[in-house]
Automatic annotation (TrEMBL):
PANTHER family tied to this protein: ARMADILLO-LIKE HELICAL DOMAIN CONTAINING PROTEIN 1
Top-level division of the source organism's lineage: Eukaryota
Protein name: ARMD1 protein
Encoding gene (name): Armh1
Pfam families found in the cross-reference section: DUF5578
UniProt feature coiled coil, ranges: none
Length: 397
């Protein structure tokens, strides 16, 4: 038999549940406020004590209301936070299972794709997905099997909330660890984010790809074009993460394609008259991308040799000769200085192309010498035909 105290507790629970069942939106909102305030951070035993061993009865009501109303944003933020109290409760694995059994993961993922919902609601959804992922490998697999990677990647690329994007990055990183079955799917999902219009999303995706690269091992060829694309970014934080990833990729089979593409960025397409490629060389384009060649070259003599064989010297001289974009000239000149100082044969070729006087100016002040070039000298640079034999770099390094 139950004691009088237990009977009173059960009666209190039944009254509370009846109050919830009969309440409308405003009243339920107040109930949720009180629940969040009183129970945040509680463990499973503490929640059961609060609800007279019937906490699951309230959780079931929360999840039912979520299923019925999530598309209409009815107290959605408070509802998700309340469910989060159950999912985050220490020793509360059974709450998680109960939530998953009603299709909780699918609902959370669908919330991310509903354009009319608030960013803060979507962020709460991501937080709950993180709690699911934290429960272990099979739960990470469940998220991935539910097309979670695609939903998260799309939300990362389109979200206007830096905080929400940060939460997505943490979750994607979590899904990429200890989840061998779907590790490559997470990796490719992050690659798919790179062409998006959000610099913050690009930065976070690049960071996570860099962390995952050692775990994944091989780098797919589909990675080449998106990585080269982000090198065009005007945002320095994006370019920094891109070059860090490029460094990691130099040890993989995609290196030749990446280096070839990087050198191609330096040279505008041939036209009837020389016209600078605005998306690559103007002040609002990736002028700092011109220095990436020397950054990679300094990391490895092998990479430097390959860049020379790919005619990087020609490309840098073309960029230096582009009088319309001084910032591009500066970065190209600094990169050119590295190759000239490192490879005697490059020095000889560049000196021959520039002539003694102009070459001396370059050597004396690589950061400013191009400001004194006249149009004729600039045209000679932009149309230079410097061509270093493929095996010469290796001989002279």
């Amino acid at each position: 038999m139950t004691s009088v105290k237990e009977q009173e507790a059960i009666k209190k629970l039944m009254v509370f549940l009846q109050e919830w069942d009969s309440a409308h939106k405003v009243a339920r909102s107040h109930i949720l406020d009180n629940f969040i305030k009183s129970n945040d951070g509680k463990t499973e035993p503490e929640l059961e004590l609060e609800f007279s061993q019937g906490a699951s009865l309230f959780l079931a009501r929360l999840t039912t209301w979520l299923r019925m109303t999530y598309m209409y944003s009815t107290c959605l933020n408070k509802l998700l936070k309340s469910i989060g109290i159950f999912l985050s409760a220490a020793s509360g694995r059974r709450y998680l299972i109960e939530f998953l059994e009603i299709g909780g993961v699918l609902i959370l993922l669908e919330i991310l794709g509903l354009n009319h919902l608030k960013e803060e609601d979507k962020r709460e959804s991501v937080k709950l997905l993180q709690l699911v992922a934290d429960a272990g490998r099979k739960y990470k697999e469940l998220i991935c099997e539910s097309y979670g990677v695609r939903s998260l990647a799309e939300f990362l690329a389109t979200s206007n909330s830096a905080e929400a994007q940060g939460d997505v990055q943490v979750l994607m990183d979590s899904l990429g660890r200890g989840n061998p079955k779907y590790q490559n799917q997470v990796y490719k999902g992050l690659v798919a984010v790179l062409p998006c219009a959000s610099p913050r999303a690009q930065q976070l995706a690049l960071q996570t790809l860099g962390v995952m690269q050692d775990m994944v091992g091989q780098a797919p060829s589909v990675l080449v074009e998106p990585v080269l694309g982000v090198l065009r970014s005007v945002h320095l934080e994006v370019q920094y993460e891109a070059i860090q990833l490029m460094k990691a990729l130099m040890a993989h089979e995609v290196r030749p394609a990446l280096l070839k593409g990087l050198v191609a960025l330096l040279t505008p397409p041939r036209k009837k008259a020389f016209t600078p490629r605005l998306d690559l060389l103007c002040a609002s384009s990736p002028i700092r991308g011109l220095s990436h060649c020397s950054v990679l070259a300094k990391e490895s003599a092998e990479v430097a040799e390959e860049l020379i064989q790919l005619k990087v010297v020609h490309g840098l001289m073309v960029a230096v000769g582009n009088l319309d974009y001084m910032a591009s000239q500066r970065h190209a000149s600094i990169s050119l200085e590295y190759f000239v100082h490192t490879f005697p044969f490059v020095e000889e070729c560049v000196k021959k192309a520039l002539g003694h006087t102009l070459f001396q100016r370059f050597m004396d002040s690589p950061k400013t010498w191009y400001t004194k070039m006249n149009p004729v000298q600039a045209e000679e640079l932009s149309s230079n035909i410097v061509d270093i034999p493929r095996d010469m770099a290796r001989m002279q390094s």
